[in-house]
Amino acid sequence: MSSVFDSLSRFYASSIGKKILVALTGLVMLGFVLGHMIGNLLIFAGKDAINEYGHLLQTALHGGGVWIARIGLLVAVVIHIVATIQLTKANRAARKDAYGKHKAQVSSKSSHIMIWSGLTILAFIIYHLLHFTARVGNDYASYQTTLHGETVHDVYRMVIAGFSWAPASIFYLIAMALLCSHLSHGFSSLFQTLGISTDKTEPLFKKAGYAFAGLIFTGNATIVLSIWLFGYGR
C-alpha cells in the first residue's frame, strides 16, 4: 500500500504527472458541461421532460449517483486548479532564468487569465450547488409536481424561479463566459498533453475548442436569457 502511495506521490510531484492530471480532470469537466447543458435544454421540451430527467438523476443508485457525480466534479475541479497553479509557478520560475523578459510577461498574463477564470468557475459550482441542490435561501425544496402518478420535485418550476431573479442570471452569464473562455484556451492543450494532438493538428483542435466553447455558452445562455428577459415559463 505504501509503495502505491509513494508511486502516486512521485507521479504528482513531477511536472508531467501534474500535466496529465490537469488534462484528465479537464476532460472530465468537458464531458460534464456538455451533458449538463444537454440535460438543462430539456426545459424547452416541456415541464414533464425536464422533471423526468431530474427525477432520473435524483433516483440513480438509490439517490447516491447524483452525489457521487457532484463530489467527483468538485474533486476534479480542485485538482485541476491546484495542479494548474503549481505548474504555473514552476514554469514562471523556470522562464525567469531561461527566457527573456517579454516572453515571461506574455506567458504570465495568459496564465493569470486561466487561473482566475478557474477560481471563478469553482466559486460558480459551489454557488450552483447551494442554489439548486442545497437550496439555501429559497423555498425550492417545497416545489412538487406529479409525474406518471408519482410526486416528484418540480425541477421545471425551480429553474424558472431561479433564472427569473436578475442577480442569479447575471452571475450565471458571467461565470459561463469565463468558463467558455477557459475551455477555448485549454481545449487544444488538453489533447496535446494526452498525445492526441500534434503540431499539424493543433490548429484544428484550437478551432474545435472555440466551437465547443461557443456551443456551451450559446446553449446555457439561451436558457437563462429566455427565462430572465423573455419570460419563458412564467
| Residue runs with pLDDT of under 50 for 5 or more positions | 102-110
Estimated share of beta-strand residues: under 5%
Sequence of strands across the biggest β-sheet: 1-2
Class per helix and strand makeup:
mainly alpha
Q: What is the molecular shape?
A: globular
The sequence of SSEs as H and E is HHHHHEEHHH
Which value, in Å, is the CA radius of gyration?
20 Å
Helix content: over 70%
Number of continuous helical runs: 8
Terminal Cα span:
57 Å
Counted beta strands: 2
Largest sheet: 2 strands, antiparallel
Mean pLDDT: 85
Walkthrough of the structure:
This protein is mainly alpha-helical and 234 residues long. Helices cover 78% and strands 3% of the residues. It has 8 helices and 2 strands; from the N terminus they run H-H-H-H-H-E-E-H-H-H. Helix 1 packs across helix 2 (15-40), helix 2 (15-40) packs across helix 7 (166-193) and helix 7 packs antiparallel against helix 8 (202-228). It is globular. The N and C termini lie far apart (57 Å). 21% of the residues are buried.
